[in-house]
Amino acid sequence: MTDYVTVMDSFVNTPRDLELLVENGIIENCLADNSEVSTLINNLGRGFSIGYNNFYYAGVCEDLKTHCGTPWHKWKTNLRQNYLNTPWAITSVIAAVFLLILTLIQAVCSIISTV
């Protein structure tokens, strides 16, 4: 039980973290406020000392560290959180990429026409 509480404590730091876990069906929130539940989860693990040699979720934690440490996943997460967080932002990024491709095609065509 202490291993599970420790893992949940590491997952939930803010009410937004808890909201994400509730949206994906990992946690069921029966209280009214997400901040109360995140505070509850963060306070459950106080006073625990876990041995990392026999930690039940050690493999899961290592897999998560490996996954999050990959540069591709960091870049993709940064792109989603900062640039693709609204439908208008997604539309503007698609339009910018489309215009960049058209500009590249125009430059190649004008180089070919001068040769």
What does this structure look like?
The chain is elongated, with a radius of gyration of 23 Å. The chain has a domain of 68 residues. With 115 residues, the chain is an all-alpha fold. It holds the Pfam family DUF247. It comes from Prunus yedoensis var. nudiflora. Keywords: Membrane, Transmembrane, Transmembrane helix.
Brief write-up:
This protein has 115 residues and is mostly helical. It contains six helices and no strands.
Low-confidence stretches: none
Order of helix and strand elements from N to C terminus: HHHHHH
Name the overall outline.
elongated
SSE-based structural type? mainly alpha
**DSSP E strands, number:** 0
The radius of gyration is 23 Å
* Beta-strand proportion: under 5%
Terminus-to-terminus distance = 73 Å
Helicity level: over 70%
Q: Mind describing the biggest β-sheet?
A: none
* Count of alpha and pi helical runs: 6
User: Average pLDDT value?
Assistant: 86
Protein name: UPF0481 protein
Keywords: Membrane, Transmembrane, Transmembrane helix
Pfam families: DUF247
InterPro entries: DUF247_pln
